[in-house]
Amino acid sequence: MRKGDATRQQIVETALSRAAELGLEGVTLGRLADELQISKSGLFAHFKSKEALQLAVLEEAIELFIEKVVRPAFVRPRGAARVRALFERWIAWFRGEEAGDTGCPFLSLSAEYDDRPGAVRDALVRSQRDWMATIARAAVLAVAEGHFRADLDPAQFAFEFSAIGMSLQYAAKLVADPNAYTHAAAAFERLFVDAAVQPQ
Amino acid sequence: MRKGDATRQQIVETALSRAAELGLEGVTLGRLADELQISKSGLFAHFKSKEALQLAVLEEAIELFIEKVVRPAFVRPRGAARVRALFERWIAWFRGEEAGDTGCPFLSLSAEYDDRPGAVRDALVRSQRDWMATIARAAVLAVAEGHFRADLDPAQFAFEFSAIGMSLQYAAKLVADPNAYTHAAAAFERLFVDAAVQPQ
DNA sequence: CACAAAACCGACCGGTCGTGCTATTCTCTG
DNA sequence: CAGAGAATAGCACGACCGGTCGGTTTTGTG
Fold this sequence. Notes:
Helices cover 74% and strands 0% of the residues of chain A. The first copy, chain A, has helices at 2-22, 29-36, 40-44, 50-74, 80-95, 105-113, 119-144, 154-174, 180-195. Chain B binds a DNA duplex through α1, α2 and α3.
């Protein structure tokens, strides 16, 4: 049916935006239904369980992330430009221009599920491994293009790349450091220069 | 009275270890009482509200952090050695040798409260500002000692310092990367060398 | 050893949680 | 426009939530 799919999509989108603030466990069916102005049971009928809703929300977040961060960066030519685009898109994602200033949902979820086994955690881990692999792959291509040094460790690069983003979210959202974005940009520049082939 | 203080301390300690897994909101009075084999009302009598318990738990965590991380590093001579000790102690804290392999409670709490206003968040923010200032202060002293370059930005140094720890927790706990600690050590080395005065 | 205060307990409150089950309303299609 | 089937609502459930209260046990002390 068509109407049902539209409603379901609306539920998932609303749930995603709430989950970024309160966590996936913090989104309750009752409040979600109130916000959407439908009954709790009417909402529930679209999912067999709350976990199914959580998985749908996570999937939605992954799709959005790929669309807003990964794909735009991968249209850039392989190499340094793509790595830089990946970072810039990621930062823009943090600012929540699309997510609604609630920050990166994956970072909230990572903390929420790092000690909570289950299907949601499994899916989350899979997506985060993909993301790290995506960064590393971009770095490998930059090496192949001759933009990055040949002895660069792509996994190490991905580790430090993602570290900057996490520190940014922490500094910007929790401690409300006005220089957070400046610090993140400077940290990336240092990482980037270190990875690039020496100008000699 | 004496007996009550001991019980209260036991409650706070147990609550802290549970909070590192489930978050402070996830610790419920009933379960906590069951685990301690006391009644829920007997437990509750030690605090005027759940928020008061949460604040007590946070205070306990701060004390523990200072005792296990900050103080041991600050007995080292000011300068590069102290900065390095600070990092090493912090990493050891992550491994949870004292906290019981649940990772750093402050990182979990940061994600949990970055969108949840209240007294707990305020206290958390204060403690995290202190921690960042502590790192920056150690860097400033290293500059004064001639170990770090004079043009080093201490806030930038603290930003990247903390970034490594966050990425470590994320990599080690969520994605279960076996090389997480190696990556963290390498990242710190890069940060440290960049901050040090050039051998020239 | 008595006795007040502190510590603790069990029962209970209103509310909300996730989740079923049954009816009703809506929507697409023949 | 009628009827089938999807979409949604109403209602109730058992469990658990933070919190309250009156009473009982334990503890430190004069």
